[in-house]
Amino acid sequence: xxxxxxxxxxxxxxxxVGILGFGVVPSLLEGHxxxxxxxxxxxxLFGMFHVNALHNLVHILFGLWGxxxxxxxxxxxxYFKVVALxxxx
Length: 89
Hints:
Blueprint: H1 3-21, E1 29-33, E2 42-45, E3 49-51, H2 53-69, H3 73-88
Antiparallel strand pairs: 1-2, 2-3
Helix pairs in contact: 1-2, 1-3, 2-3
């Protein structure tokens, strides 16, 4: 597989996790507390991953960036370098 394909896959996964983290499918969130607001949902996605509004937005942005970066090899390589640096910090 190429770097572009991996960037596309990462983008789709990040985007899906970001959207699901907002409780679009409430049964996927365990131990969630929502005080009536879409943005205030917190809990565990799939019972394993802590989610909150800010974390979800970051995942969505990383996902959109991955989708855009997958359009070129240079973009995909740059995406992975910066994502690795961010996660390392």
